[in-house]
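Agenda item 2: zinc ion complex prediction
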Amino acid sequence: MGDWELLITGCGTSHGNPPWGYPQLWSEDPRDLRRRAGAVLSGPDGQVLLIDAGPDLQHQMRDPDRTWDGRSYPARCIVRCDGVLLTHDHADHSHGLNDLRHLNRLMGGTPISIFGAREHLDAVQTMFPFCFGDPDKLYYLGSPALLSVAMTDGALTDVGGLPVIAFPMSHGPAGRTTGFRCGGMAWLTDLKQLPAEADVYLRDLDLLVLDMLREQEHSTHLNWVEAQAIIARLKPRRTVLTHMGYEVKYREWEPRLPPGVVMAYDGYRCRFTA
Ligand SMILES: [Zn+2]
Ligand SMILES: [Zn+2]
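Presented output:
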């Protein structure tokens, strides 16, 4: 099985950042300009999977790595989707589901499967009932044609040729989120505690993509000390920090990171073994 590519299309926390209205908090470093968290996984046979579908989805599909000049045809745009891995139903991860309809259109009406935990799929179906139902009728009505595919925790699922295992994590008082092991990569965002039972799915990681909100503690996200503890526990070969707050300025943080740990930016790419 060939390598896959991870492209971070957004690495910001729920508001995106930096925040407007606070000029003192602004950053002119383009690496600190972050869309809501998400990624594109590209397979060796042209497969395209998305992780989450947040409110910046349309921009992420048109200009996935932020290299578009804003005028010419965006040559790197995403025109195919073989499935979406949904971490949870929070707005910053799910409120772009409606924009998947353009990908339905580009694929001639082919429905898109949304993979995740039953409770999160039920929640997005309640929020966006017009996206789920008979895919043929939905597509011709101009609505997104989405299929809800509940994953069993701990079971191996083939998603577009990528072996994926879903497992539960704690988002603190916000409830459950789903972590994904995808071949040699693991995607762990929106977590506060990683249950000990998850370790069995996280051995021998080539690449860990990890929630790291900021230096200060937070009730629903890992801070830097907690993220370091997870890295020490799982010992991945490489770690990419994501879902960062405005407080985390690229230029200030980069020099302090230990070997093997980097910060994401919108457009960050790397390969991982499947
Ligand atoms: Zn989030
Ligand atoms: Zn969340």
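Discussion summary: The mean pLDDT is 96.
Owner for follow-up: CH.
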